[in-house]
Amino acid sequence: MNVKDGLGKLHYNSPVILTYAVICVVILGINYLTAGWLNTHVMVCYGHPSLLDPMTYIRAFTHVLGHGDWSHLFNNMILLMLVGPVVEERYGSGNLVIMIAANALITAIVNGIFFSNGIIGASGVVFMLIILSAFTNMQKGKIPLTLIIVAAMYLGREIVNALSVQDGISQMAHIVGGLTGLGFGIYFYRKKFSTV
Q1: What is the CATH number of the domain that holds 112?
Q2: 31, 45, 58, 194: which has the fewest Cβ within 10 Å?
Q3: How many domains does the chain have?
Q4: Helix runs in 92-134, H state only
Q5: pLDDT for 41
Q6: pLDDT of residue 160
Q7: Among candidate residues 108, 101, 102, 124, the one with its CA nearest the CA of residue 48
Q8: Regarding predicted confidence, which is higher, 194 or 34?
């Protein structure tokens, strides 16, 4: 087998997750090239924003695409690549785009109302995907033990961290992401089994 044959077998198996990851990498690269200008002016979603500033509405969605540094990015991307493709296959690419956008908006609203600091990063999306992945093999009338364990571990840890860490910002994004995943998981569960 030559190299060309091997590359021809590569499959863009999870278009939303892979495209999302590529966009995050490109944005962080541009942020480094602009000495942090991109994050400061476009990507960070600030708390208590001005509703008259058009960038407030843009940042409500872009904050899940930006990252503070390469370590922040890679930590999020590892988990994104592990659970994202399973979730995308189960719920569909179009639904996943809607869920990511909804998660970004809900997190921005909560941050804007309750916090004064800025948020940036995909960790809320990752937490949403982790919770959604626990719903993937759910059967009618049964609650998977894995769902309860995952929700208890991740949401419980973040609630404890939010109470003990000074800023609580990243924990808030994680909690909102987990609750968003739980909400979407319940919605799709009911939708699936209401037609059966």
Answers
A1: 1.20.1540.10
A2: 194
A3: 1
A4: 93-114, 123-133
A5: 97
A6: 76
A7: 108
A8: 34
